[in-house]
From TrEMBL:
Chain span(s) of sequence motif RadA KNRFG motif: 257-261
Organism annotation: Microvirga thermotolerans
Domain free text: The middle region has homology to RecA with ATPase motifs including the RadA KNRFG motif, while the C-terminus is homologous to Lon protease.
Protein name: DNA repair protein RadA
UniProt keyword ATP-binding present: yes
Matches recorded under PANTHER family: DNA REPAIR PROTEIN RADA, DNA REPAIR PROTEIN RADA-LIKE PROTEIN
One GO BP: recombinational repair
Phylogenetic lineage: Bacteria, Pseudomonadati, Pseudomonadota, Alphaproteobacteria, Hyphomicrobiales
UniProt-recorded Gene Ontology molecular function terms: ATP binding; ATP-dependent DNA damage sensor activity; damaged DNA binding; hydrolase activity; zinc ion binding
InterPro entries reported for this sequence: AAA+_ATPase (IPR003593), DNA_repair_RadA (IPR004504), P-loop_NTPase (IPR027417), RecA_ATP-bd (IPR020588), Ribosomal_Su5_D2-typ_SF (IPR020568), Ribsml_uS5_D2-typ_fold_subgr (IPR014721), Rubredoxin_2 (IPR041166)
Length: 469
């Protein structure tokens, strides 16, 4: 029998050590390394201490050419959820769903379970954190109490697999959450790296052999990352994040990883007293209630996957009484803001070193694409000069360190969405405007350098001039 050695694993990233350490060398976390029993020497592994006597099985190899079939899917009945997953749940796939506590993960999964069950599919909802009565109360509040969803409160993976294997395989099985599951093959406490990894592996094996789509709900850390070993994210087929702010009534479903679909699509939901409601046109939601005559607001025409999305970017530039001016950003990359401010000072002739700068993406949406540089710069220039931007104009374009405005992808789709919502003008990179000038659905102004944007906004009448008129 192999000699057992102490095993220490990081509870944040899953890194394994042969002795305890105060700081994990892999992820930099402090006090995250915990001793786990029941493991062989982690530096050697159980396979190396038990050599195999049997010969390996020879399997056939195939070439790249040949017939390929589309993966069979089961639509969930919720269009925004199907958009993120790529058209529905792929048979035998594993989806890891993460999100802040109370953001609406269980509500979304209950609505998806009820929609599938009402179509005659077998759906199982296994909760390791709530009793069956609590799950029923949530279903009754959502008006889904009559849906034929199979419920259970269980944490033992072997019992779950044995129960779900009886009869017709479920089309969808929901495990809420993976941190509460434990398997008898691992001698460790539930929630540890070894238990989470072992439980996930057992559920993945069940999904692949039966064709059941399994959704694993995962806890998140205080910085928004899915808790537990990162190896679980590599084991599953898709990682989906449910984002939102409790101060806003809408939620964003975003695919971080998807082996059977795109990873840049988002689904938009609105939280109501009857659960989550789909938002087919999120641009109207993000632009609702904006002040058209206030300096420092610009409408950004962005893209989330194949969906064009219009959102308002707000900026406030105010004189600072501090030795080091403050820079605060909500919904955008702070490093990107620092770069835009540096370009405006170096090439735009603006003096922002003695001003506090606040930037906010209205509605709580988080923007990641660099095409928002031009809209953020326009909002900053407008706030500093006090000149409001045209309320019927959208902005998009990437800014280089030289001050040049670089072209971005899918410019025509952005402009079509803006025209559909009633916008009549756009400020976009010159390369894209000149190339497709005859096909544009609205009047577009070509911007080649940041100085053109500064001159155009400075030439507009300010708020004080408008009030005098």
């Amino acid at each position: 029998m192999a000699k057992r050695h102490p095993s220490f694993a990081c509870q944040s990233c899953g890194a394994v050590y042969n002795r305890w350490k105060g700081k994990c060398e892999a992820c930099g976390g402090w006090n995250t390394i915990v001793e786990e029993t029941g493991s062989a020497n982690p530096m050697v592994g159980p396979v190396a201490t038990r050599p195999s006597r049997a010969k390996g099985r020879i399997f056939p190899l195939e070439g790249l050419s040949g017939e390929t079939k589309e993966a069979p899917r089961t639509p969930s009945g919720i269009a925004e959820l199907d958009r993120v997953t790529g058209g529905g749940f792929v048979h035998g796939s594993i989806i890891l769903l993460g999100g802040d506590p109370g953001i609406g993960k269980s509500t979304l999964l209950m609505q998806a379970s009820a929609a599938l069950a009402n179509r005659g599919e077998r759906v199982a909802y296994i909760s390791g954190e709530e009793a069956v009565a609590q799950v029923r109360l949530r279903a009754e509040r959502l008006g889904l109490g009559q849906a034929p969803v199979e419920l259970a409160s269980e944490t033992n993976v072997e019992d779950i697999v044995a129960t779900l294997s009886q009869g017709r395989p479920p089309a969808l099985a929901i495990i809420d959450s993976i941190q509460t599951m434990w398997t008898e093959t691992v001698e460790s406490a539930p929630g540890t790296v070894t238990q989470v990894r072992g439980s996930a592996q057992a559920l993945i094996r069940f999904a692949k052999t039966t064709g059941t789509a399994v959704i694993l709900v995962g806890h998140v850390t205080k910085d928004g990352q899915i808790a537990g070993p990162r190896v679980v994210e590599h084991m599953v087929d898709a990682v989906v994040s449910f984002e939102g702010d409790t101060g806003h009534h809408f939620r964003i479903l975003r695919a971080v990883k998807n082996r059977f679909g795109p990873t840049d699509e988002i689904g938009v939901f609105e939280m109501s007293d009857r659960g989550l409601r789909e938002v087919p046109n999120p641009s109207e939601l993000f632009l609702a209630g904006r002040d058209l005559a206030t300096p420092g607001t610009a409408v950004f025409a962005g893209m989330e996957g194949t969906r064009p999305l219009l959102v308002e970017i707000q900026a406030l530039v105010a004189p600072s009484s501090l030795g080091t001016p403050r820079r605060a950003v909500v919904g955008w990359d702070p490093n990107r803001l620092s770069m835009v401010l540096a370009v405006l000072e170096a090439h735009g002739g603006l003096r922002l070193g003695m001003h506090d700068v606040y930037l906010n993406v209205a509605g709580g949406l988080r923007i990641t694409e660099p095409a928002a540089d031009l809209a953020a710069a326009a909002a900053l220039i407008s706030s500093l000069s006090g000149n409001p931007l045209p309320p019927d104009t959208v902005y998009f374009g990437e800014m280089g360190l030289s001050g040049a405005i670089r072209p971005v992808a899918q410019a025509e789709a952005r402009l079509k969405e803006a025209a559909k919502l009633g916008f009549s003008g756009a400020v976009a990179p010159a390369a894209r405007v000149d190339k497709a000038k005859d096909r544009l659905p609205l009047a577009a102004s070509a911007i080649g350098h940041i100085t053109d944007l500064v001159a155009g906004i400075a030439a507009r009448p300010g708020r004080a001039a408008r009030s005098r008129g």
